[in-house]
Amino acid sequence: MPEHVSQSLARITRLGRRCCDVLEALGRAGLFLVQSAFSMPSREGFRLWLRQMHFVGVLSLAIVLVSGLFIGMVLALQGYTILVDFGAEQALGQMVALSLLRELAPVVAALLFAGRAGSALTAEIGLMKATEQLTSMEMIGVDPLRRVVAPRLWAGFISLPILTVGFSVVGIWGGYLVGVEWLGVFEGSYWSNMQANVTFIDDIGNGIIKSLVFAVVVTWIAVFQGYDLVPTSEGISRATTRTVVYSSLAVLGLDFVLTAVMFGGL
Amino acid sequence: MTDAGFIEIENVHFSRGDTDIFRGVSLSIPRGKVTAIMGPSGTGKTTLLKLIGGQLAPDSGRVIIDGQDVHQLSRKALFRLRKRMGMLFQSGALFSDLDVFENVAFPIRVHTDLPDAMVRDIVLLKLQAVGLRGARHLMTSELSGGMARRVALARAVALDPELILYDEPFVGQDPISMGVLVQLIKRLNQALSLTSVVVSHDIKETLSIADYLYLIADGEVVAHGTPQSLDVHDDPRVSQFMHGEPDGPVPFHYPAKSLYDDILSEDATIRVG
Predict the structure, then answer these.
(1) How many structural domains are present in chain A?
(2) ipTM confidence
(3) Residue of B nearest to A132 (CA)
């Protein structure tokens, strides 16, 4: 066989193998999610879940709320400078609320969550794996998927939507501070425009659906990366990086798809 | 008591990637005795324990514990079987978010419905057996290596298992805690009539507690017998290992081209220059 043929054959083989690896990893991740997320709830499980809600949810509160405040303030400032040219600054409340509820709150909260809680989940589970804690748990006859993974997954699933709601609320208040208190938009029009133009199902509901989807994806990636990593110090650092990179890309990509379905008339 | 061993390993083959780790290993571990599996580092001794514990599955062959084929069991049945085993990990593998007391209590809490007062009594007795009753409130990060391994031992026997697997129990221990561990393993085995499997390459300590030895090298069992019979074995691989000779059938040098080619030939100088 001529050399260039065998070389391109080798390249195709490599590509095929790479595809198989990716598919296999996806399959493993899918099984992992099903096996760990759907297990019988128990009192002990509830206690473990509550503990994780604290680590994953409560401790992310500060970064999410502070970011929400600043984003709301920036939105109001930027929006005002454009709207005032058209004499439409009364619509500021509507603009701030819709941008936050539909787009910025779910996306930015999910990105912050991936950086703050996702990376911590990966590193924690990875370290448990590296120090044989997961193996020893298995040898004691306790399934680490139920004991370690499930509470963390559910804590992530539930806390991110709540954090997203908090983000929106604080953001709208930040917009109020800048728009009304500082730039002098009439308070009545800020709130009434918002009230008239934000619908519960289309805007708030879709935003929450988005954040639910992001919550599942980000937590799933974080926990799976921790569980599946190579248990060395290099493996842990790479998995932590992968968690943040993959989650961010997944959130932004999915956001486009979801927006197209929800608001793009698809 | 039956004649067949508590654990029967039959013609197990296992490979990782392209490397064969076991090429047909068979051994029998009798009930109520201390059986040691020895061999140079990297021969897959820990892998063998993982095969016994069902964490890894062999490419072919069977591992039978008390009449049950470990790798044919459902996940549930496997976890049930594991309740009857304890395992002491090389690193101790204590749960870092729990203190000493809760680490030992962990298996009891998850597998029984005993009231708290009784759990407390059992845990304190187990800790008393390893001499660490006074350390019950320490976090695992506050323990020395030897103490961590003793706590792990207390946890491994918390449910009074029938079988304990020790993975390199003596590695990295100072002489005092080494002596303590040897004593403990021996005493626990006698007091609870356990079946113990010790994987180790510390010859002196292992010989002092083992009833029977298997020596593994190159993916096979190269010799087995009582400590006395292996000590005078005539296979050069066995005597090199048993007497710790630096060179022999297991070479001191990792395979390489000759020293002359590597350092003094023209090729080498040009490459470095």
Answers:
(1) 2
(2) 0.75
(3) B93
